Amino acid sequence: MTGHGRPGRLLDPGLCLTLRPMAYPAFFEMYRAAVKNTWTVEEVDFSTDVRDLGTKMTEPERHLVQRLVAFFATGDSIVANNLVLNLYRHVNAPEARMYLSRQLYEEALHVQFYLTLLDTYVPDPQDRARAFAAVDNIPSIRGKAAFCMRWLDSVQSLARLETRDDRRRFLLNLIAFAACVEGLFFFGAFAYVYFLRSRGLLHGLAAGTNWVFRDESAHMAFAFDVIATIRREEPDLFDGQLAGAVAAMIDEAVDCETQFAEDLLGGGVAGLSVGDVRRYLEHCADRRLATLGLPRRYGAANPLPFMDLQDVQEVTNFFERRVSAYQVGVAGEVVLDASF
């Protein structure tokens, strides 16, 4: 157990309990910011979505939504499991663990949002059960789940990060979930939601996704800050071997998500092609690599202009109903003009 005086590094084994002196104040500020950005599932209005699904959407568009909801049903649960089983165990700073505790709450909130979404969109209990079984029964979703579980399992046996190899294995797990699961799988899913929003469809899903998008962007920012801290403290971990492993990981994730796109868009969805989704994924992958200080691999521009708008984290009222992003202050006030 480390504590008094805060010696050591972020991945040193032990259980640091000392918040003063604070070694990593940026993580504490991320925790405070996350607490301010509180929302609830009950604020999401799905009333127009059911009508859209029944009367305004084509069969290929409904297939897209069905597959998307099936992925959402378990995606955040996998991330939450990795957070509890791996990240919280090894990121050894109490202020970082405070943020991870808040992130776990947000992952549970996302699970509740998608459960409510599933109950709203898929009223038949047997159909809902099939959606939750998608990780086993639908190949395009099974492939993504297998990718996630392989990286989750990769450090399960590590009780402590005693060696350089242990730390490299943990670092790759952290990168896989930040850059690939949250940074590619989730961003790919968000792109379909905002494509439908650009067509004037599923406003409730898009409104809730605005908050999930904001949360996931913050989760990535925290993870990348942890990675940057490890790089400063242990630069020898960031060598050619790690860079090669990350490049292979990114390639595999882009391929997994492209297979998902082929499934979602296989019936032909007007205005969105597999090629466009692939280029968007490559664009996101290059951004993740650049954040990691690694060379870009694809050189792809963003082909989806509606995602350029989303990337600036706008806080205006998308549907002329209500402000879709806000901060709840420490004293409970609501700030309507905050920028995220």
How would you summarize what this structure contains?
This protein is mainly α. It has 12 helices and 2 strands, in the order H-H-H-H-H-H-H-H-H-H-H-H-E-E.
Low-confidence segments: 312-340
Strand content: under 5%
What is the overall shape? globular
Oligomer: single chain
Q: Strand order across the biggest sheet? A: 1-2
Helix content: 55-70%
CATH superfamily of the domain at 44-272: Ribonucleotide Reductase, subunit A
The number of helical runs is: 12
CATH class of the domain at 44-272: Mainly Alpha
What is the CATH topology classification name of the domain at 44-272? Ribonucleotide Reductase, subunit A
Cα-based radius of gyration, to the nearest Å: 20 Å
At CATH level 2, the architecture of the domain at 44-272 is Orthogonal Bundle
Span between N and C termini? Answer: 37 Å
- Mean of residue pLDDT values: 89
By DSSP, the count of extended strands is 2
